Amino acid sequence: MERSEQKRFDKLYQKHLTTLKLQGKSPSTIDLYSRPLRRVAAFFDRCPDTLKPDDLKTYFAALVESHSWSTVKTDRNGLQFFWKHVLGKPWQFVDIIKPPTVKSLPVILTTTEIELLLNKARKLRYYTILLTLYSMGLRLAEGLNLTISDIDARRMKVHLRNCKGGKDRYVDLPLRTLKALRRYWATHRNPTFLFPEGQTANQRHRATQPMSRSSTQKAMKHLVEECRIHKKVSPHSLRHSFATHLMEQGVSLRAIQELLGHMCPKTTAIYTRLTETTQLNTRRIINHLIDELDLKGDDQ
User: Fold this and answer.
1) pTM for the complete prediction?
2) Is there a catalytic annotation at residue 164?
3) How many other CB atoms sit within 10 Å of the CB of residue 137?
4) CB-based contact 108:241 (threshold 8 Å)
5) d(CA 140, CA 239)
6) Pick the catalytic residue: 76, 239, 240, 245?
7) Which of 212, 257, 217, 213 is nearest to 233 (CA)?
8) What is the mean pLDDT of residues 53-82?
């Protein structure tokens, strides 16, 4: 890219980031919507504001061959935002690419597989974060960003802040999970985070950021391999498994929707395709579910 064009790109790119922030987009969305701008600029080696529909057809055709449909959809949305809100031009390329609608069921781990995973976790931080994700049905970011002030031990609740969709919610805190969180926090005593970044206790004590998503993802991948679980799962699978196990225990669909923070009942309804439900007390079932796990981590 020529120097003058590079300067124009840099200016537009910064305007793109600023516009995303001013529209209240989350840091993760800003990151996702900025990647396609860098990617398409590198693909053509020129500033994206000069691209025509045929150029984008070429770009997306190549993207389909090299990336997932999720990436294709994200790039389309990110570039559409850039065209409409940064360039101030109508987005005329919406029909260039239409990722297929895939209605796949989530992969579920059994309670026996959950026990295997947690008992294989030799590092206390991974044992604790995976137990936390499963026992409260949390998204990975929700678990990693937990702070001391989010824990209400008196009410046995956890306050989740600025979750997906920008909403807060409360979830029930199993007693076993509270004990695990206290046990792990006592190893670093960070003044803010329950899961701070850092390799040593001293680094974790002084950390100002939570530990990374990738470290937890890699840890679970290794645990799955060690346990010889032949399923394509990730930390998010613990959330799906939690919801399914609650439904198998008889918790209502509405209660599970509230626990998971789903805005639309249809999102939660997918679990009805995995099990049968009846109405029972939610908190009692959650504690029973977590207490029944045969875990060695309680003794660490």
Assistant:
1) 0.66
2) yes
3) 22
4) yes
5) 9
6) 239
7) 217
8) 87
For 138-158, the pLDDT digits (tens) are 999 999 999 999 999 999 999
Q: How far apart are CA 245 and CA 112, in angstroms?
A: 12
Residue 288 pLDDT > 80: yes
Give the whole-angstrom CA distance, residue 187 versus residue 199.
12
The answer to whether residue 239 is catalytic is yes
pLDDT confidence of residue 24: 85
Catalytic, 240? Answer no
Residue type for 87, please?
L
* CA–CA–CA angle 194, 196, 202 (5° rounding): 110
Of 76, 125, 139, 240, which is the active-site residue?
139
Catalytic residue selected from 164, 169, 205, 283: 164
Residue 297 scores a pLDDT above 90: no
For residue 236, indicate whether it is catalytic. Answer: yes
E-strand ranges in 154-198 read: 157-160, 169-172
Compute φ and ψ for 151, nearest 5 degrees: -95, 120
**pLDDT tens across 198-249, in order?**
999 999 999 999 999 999 999 999 999 999 999 999 999 998 898 888 888 8
Set out the domains of the chain in order of their start, with CATH numbers: 3-86 (1.10.150), 111-299 (1.10.443.10)
Whole-angstrom distance, CA of residue 174 vs CA of residue 160: 15
CA distances from 48 to 5, 32, 137 (A): 10, 17, 41
Give the mean pLDDT of the chain: 86
Burial string for 32-47 (b: 16+ CB within 10 Å, else e) reads bbbebbebbbebeebb
Return d(Cα 40, Cα 11) in angstroms, integer: 16
Model pLDDT, residue 98: 64
Question: What size, in residues, is the chain?
Answer: 300
Closest alpha carbon to 133 in 260, 227, 284, 43: 260
Q: What is the DSSP letter of 261?
A: T
Active site residue 228: no
Annotation marks residue 167 as catalytic: no
